[in-house]
Amino acid sequence: MYEDRIRRPALMNKLTSAADAALLFKDGMTVGMSGFTRAGDAKALPMALVERARQAPLHLTLLTGASLGNDSDGLMANAGVVARRMPFQADAALRRKINTGEVMFIDQHLSETAEQLRSGDLKAVDIAVIEAVAITADGSIIPTMSVGNTANFVQQAKQVIVEINLSAPLALEGFHDIYVPGERPHREAIPLLTPWQRIGATAIRVQPERIAAIVITDSPDSPSNALPPDEETDAIARHVIRFLDAEVKAGRMDPTLRPLQAGIGTIANAVLHGLIDSPFRDMTMYSEVLQDSAIELLDSGQLKMASASSITLSAAMHEKFIANIEQYRERVVLRPQEISNHPEIVRRLGIIALNTALEFDIYGNVNSTHVGGTHMMNGIGGSGDFARNGQLSIFVSKSVAKDGAISSVVPFAAHVDHTEHDVDVLVTEWGLADLRGLAPRERAPLIIEHCAHPDYRPQLRAYFEEAKLGGGQTPHVLEQALSWHARYKREGSMLVK
Hints:
The protein is an alpha/beta fold. It has 16 helices and 25 strands.
């Protein structure tokens, strides 16, 4: 009854229940699961592993592309299944386990996980669990709405479990471009010269005998949890559009811009949404995730094509995408994340990178991951891959959080994911600071006056003036550099009253 989904007849005898497939897992194994920002993740096996853990101890090292959907990360963490996790997550329950030290979380640049597995720096994957549209006649696996690290997991896993998701339309076949780099040190250059090029296969190759089980599911991806644009994000979008328009008028790029990258989340999605009313045309994207705004730009005609590793949409946009899937076939490409985020390609294409900051300091250092410098939020994701290697590295943030109790612009970032060397432009709803070619002493006044909330500017000015008295290329008053974070922890607000 699944001949259109399992096209190699000999694999029909691998059909089994998720509960029986879960018996293949042993305590201490390393498991690679498909899934990237709530898209293309396995639906049945995570729940089956939770049940399996109730019968006997089961502690796994879990690798994915990025975050999983369907609360899988949290349910597995609460059941004790996840002992070690990488490279990214976005689940509140798992986050609590990470911040109490119960789960060891390794935060990685998303381009690096596959490389570290390939080189043996990480323990090899024992079992790969991959969601698929179908299995081809030669045994290859056609992914669903994301690729992520699945090609690498499949390449090295001793056993592969395939979840055939009937809710994923067969029309997704052909969207994927699976290219796996060769071994170092004699690897050839990746032959990708434009975002729309296809250089690989449409499915993930695997020896059929390594497919240990096939599970049938019929569950859609979790919808995106990005919020709609608001007054602040609209203002941020206007600042970015004016800046890019000035770049065009200065002759540094043409009205098609350079290929765009936008990180996951509400603010980046809202800024891209703002490009619908921009003067730019025939734009392209070379990103890691396509959100609602990317589909809106494709529909408007302003975006010519989009390349990514994942498509993560709201429920309404997902329904529209699937209903009109043929019109996107030649305009959307899904690649492995080590290709979508590859430094060589990002540098070659001259990407405009647009990512979100939790906070940044007056010299341009950006914290993307740790609240108060200690508590993990989600992870660095792919922002570092694009920030260091893109032509333009733009970080956006609302100027305050917690109803103004927290300033996103601080004297010294409590944790640094992106140093001042990798940050070109900072933007909040109040304005934009172009930091290119500026020394630290020139950056600070610009960031304070253009990006900080007006309530916090006097404190920031006072800190900078006192810091300059002590001298230094990057002036600081070390005794006060993190005092804002300490004040918030002590008094519930960074603002001096």
